[in-house]
Structures are given as C-alpha cells and as structure tokens.
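Figure 3 (text version): structure tokens given as input.
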C-alpha cells in the first residue's frame, strides 16, 4: 500500500488532471479485450477506473485481473473528465495493488429473497441501494439536530431503562433490573421530557425506542429511532405548526443534499416537492370518519384508524395530512381533552402520502393535576409509579405539547421504500435479530 494521501471519490470532480490514489472495493468489472473497466467504490461514491493494457506495466495488468466483486484494492491514476460517467469523471489507471481478493461473494446480481438478504444484512449494506438509503437516513438525522438547535431547543436525553410504561402495556420489553425489580425498555422519552420542558422551555430527545410488536408489518420495528420535541406553553395549534415546519424543513434538506441518492433509488420526488411547497391539509377525526364512509370504510366514532384507513385518507393528497381530535378512548392517558368537545382529545397524527402511514404522533398534554390523576386511574396504571409525572402538574403547572416522529417511517417515505426493515442498519423485527 502507498503511504501518500488517499483521495475520496466524492472529491474527484475538483481534481481533474491530478494523479490520485484511492482505496476501496470493486463494485463491478467489464473486460473488453485489452481494456478493463473497473467500477470502484469507497463509500463516498462510485468511479470508473480504466486500465489499458498497453499503457500500464505488465504487473498492473495482471494484478487488475485478480479483482473479483468486493475485492479490496488500492488504485492510482489520473482524474479526467468523462461527461457520460456518474460524477462526470473517470480515472485512467497507472498503478494498482490488490489488498484482499474476495472469494464467493454471497450476494450476486440474481434475485435474492428478502429473508436471505436480511440474513446477509452485514454484507447487503454494501449494495448501492442500501448505501443510498443509509445516506438519506444520516442526512435526516443531522437535519433533525440542526432544526432544533437553530430554534433554541436543548437536547435532553431520556433514559432507556424505565420503571413504567408510556404508550400502553401491551408491547413492553421487560428486563430484570435487580433481583427484585423489573425495568422496561423505553417506548417513548416523552414522560421524561415534560419535566425537562419546565426546566428548559424547549427540549427534544432523539434515541432508540423499543416496542415488542407482536405482529409482522412493514411499518413496525421492535427497535426504532424516535425524535421527540416537547415545548412549554405550546398548545395544539402551535404543535400542528411545529410539526408541519419540521417535516417541510427535513424534506427540503433531503431534496437539496441527497439528490444523487434519490436518483439512485429511482425516487419520484413529486410528493416531496409538494410537501415543501404546499400547506398540509388539517382534518378532525370526525371529518375523517365521514370521508372514510364515502370511500366505503364502515368506521364509526370510537374506531381506531388502521393502515388501510390511513392510506385511504391520504389518497388524493400529495403532502402529509394532519388529523386531530381523536376519541379519548383510543388515545393515550395523558392527552388533553378538547374543552369544546370533551369526548375527543387534542392528539395529532401526521399521515404521509403514498401509503407510508403515520409518521408523527403527538398531543397537547393534560396539565391539570386532578384530571391527569383520574385518567391514570381510568387506564388502571399504577399511581405510585406516576407520582413524579404528576409533580409536573403540582409545582407550577403549564400547558405543553409535543410529538414523536419515527426516523425509519420518515426515511422510508423519503426514499420510496415501502418496508421499514431497509431503513435502519440492523433491523430488529419479530423473529429477526441476526445479525
Ligand atoms: O404515536 P406514538 O406511539 O407516540 C408516542 O410515542 C408519543 N409518546 C410521542 C410524543 O408525543 N412524544 O409514536 C410516535 C411515532 C409514530 O408516529 C411512528 O412514526 C413511530 O413513532 N413508531 C414506530 N416506528 C417504527 N416501528 C414502530 N413499532 C413504531 N411505533 C411508533
Ligand atoms: Mg401513534
């Protein structure tokens, strides 16, 4: 291996005419007599490296012949303009060293079943589509932090081991905390953010979240990442505005900075562009029921909206749709009742277009101590475990609101990938925890 500086593919455009050294893997190769075309990748991009037999020393020609798909190698050559190539450049090879020959790469171009690919996830990550998805995901993650930091929020990390449930008890992951005591993996950081909002005003958390989902669906993971803002003195209308501004800004960032990846994913960006440009429709649950009735769904007040209903509701819209004022009975214990219609609560769901379903769930929180206490009792939750949470309403109570957005749901929609399992590096699903 050389000891000089190593270039990256993403930086080659500004180095035309220079001799560079790259290190990475062979993505693809095509031989045509005395010319060999090597598609090289280093994680930052792909570039065609051209080896011409009569222009390189004999050993470079024979060395390049050892390259198989996914072999690692170092290549030196001159960067030149190539308008028909991705990135507009290619490399005219002058030197090449194979670092490790790859034998029997398991993922060949033939069609593999998803189960097989999932069992090879550690290798499947190298494929162009998976690389593009992971880059979009990473862009969204940094856009999330930028969104909140630029608006004066403080990041407050909520705990992962918790003594009680936040989002119902049916999908809790239980662990043995001490010999006597159990703990649960966090289903949401919300309960811990509410006291922090009283300390810092505007806060957010962003971390892994766990739900022991008991069925296999394309929209559910058992471990996923959720970003949750929580804001003191924010009420439901302000929450809707925040959610809309947030989704618009993240989408604009993906469109702006991940163009190449969206292209590789062959993503039709119509809904993403509309999302940035147009206001999101806002409907109440009662209206949603009526709309669904006209579409042949026999839902009545009090029914939960499933995936099919969500998809039907967003049909005809090219932006997300915000649904509010759900029946109290189908929502979490902490949601504030609507003073004008106490049967419903000021909960907010944002449904993505194209059948991607609920990307955001949130609400205004109950800030009256006695009302919250009665809801905890109604839901048969252990009051002692929630004393600290009730304290937020005891010592200087304040209206407040927040929401949670699932990173994988959002990334799936951005990428146009229907199943969440491809939107997290190592998915944890029912019956799948390897690798
Ligand atoms: O609607 P959820 O359950 O809301 C909460 O957890 C609130 N405590 C959040 C808050 O107000 N701070 O979950 C929020 C979002 C959903 O809209 C969805 O995007 C995602 O989290 N989500 C999942 N993503 C992947 N797999 C799962 N099993 C998910 N469950 C929820
Ligand atoms: Mg929800």
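Below: residues designed for each position.
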């Amino acid at each position: 291996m050389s000891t000089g500086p190593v270039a990256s593919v993403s930086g080659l455009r500004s180095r035309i005419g220079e001799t560079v050294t790259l290190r990475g893997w062979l993505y693809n190769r095509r031989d045509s007599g005395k010319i060999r075309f090597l598609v090289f990748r280093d994680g930052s991009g792909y570039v065609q490296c051209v080896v011409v037999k009569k222009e390189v020393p004999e050993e470079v020609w024979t060395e390049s012949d050892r390259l198989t798909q996914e072999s690692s190698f170092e290549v030196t050559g001159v960067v030149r303009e190539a308008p028909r190539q991705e990135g507009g450049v290619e490399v005219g090879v002058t030197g090449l060293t194979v670092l490790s020959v790859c034998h029997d790469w398991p993922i060949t171009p033939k069609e593999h079943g998803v189960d097989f690919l999932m069992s090879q996830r550690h290798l499947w990550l190298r494929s162009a589509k998976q690389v593009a998805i992971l880059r979009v995901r990473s862009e969204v993650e940094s856009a999330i932090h930028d969104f909140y930091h630029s608006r004066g929020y403080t990041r407050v990390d909520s705990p992962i081991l918790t003594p009680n449930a936040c989002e119902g008890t049916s999908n809790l992951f239980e662990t043995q905390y001490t010999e006597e005591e159990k703990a649960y993996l966090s289903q949401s950081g919300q309960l811990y953010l509410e006291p922090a909002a009283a300390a810092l005003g505007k806060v957010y958390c962003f971390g892994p979240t766990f739900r022991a989902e008991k069925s296999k669906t394309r929209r559910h993971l058992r471990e996923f990442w959720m970003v949750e803002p929580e804001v003191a003195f924010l009420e439901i209308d302000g929450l809707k505005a925040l959610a809309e501004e947030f989704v618009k800004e993240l989408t604009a960032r993906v469109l702006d900075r991940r163009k190449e990846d969206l292209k590789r994913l062959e993503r039709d960006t119509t809904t993403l562009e509309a999302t940035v440009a147009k206001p999101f429709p806002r409907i109440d649950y009662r209206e949603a029921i009526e709309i669904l009735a006209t579409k042949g769904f026999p839902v009545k007040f009090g029914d939960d909206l499933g995936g099919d209903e969500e998809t039907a509701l967003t049909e005809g819209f090219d932006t997300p749709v915000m649904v509010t004022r759900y029946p109290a009975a189908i929502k979490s214990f902490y949601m504030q009742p609507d003073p004008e219609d106490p049967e419903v609560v000021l909960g907010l769901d944002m449904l993505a277009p194209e059948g991607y379903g609920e990307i955001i769930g949130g609400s205004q929180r109950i800030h009256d101590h006695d009302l919250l206490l009665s809801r905890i009792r109604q839901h048969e939750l252990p009051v002692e475990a929630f004393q600290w949470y009730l304290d937020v309403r005891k010592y200087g109570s304040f209206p407040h609101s927040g929401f949670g957005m699932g990173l994988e749901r959002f990334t799936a929609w951005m990428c146009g990938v229907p199943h969440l399992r491809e939107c997290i590096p190592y998915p944890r699903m029912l019956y799948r925890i390897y690798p």
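The radius of gyration is 26 Å.
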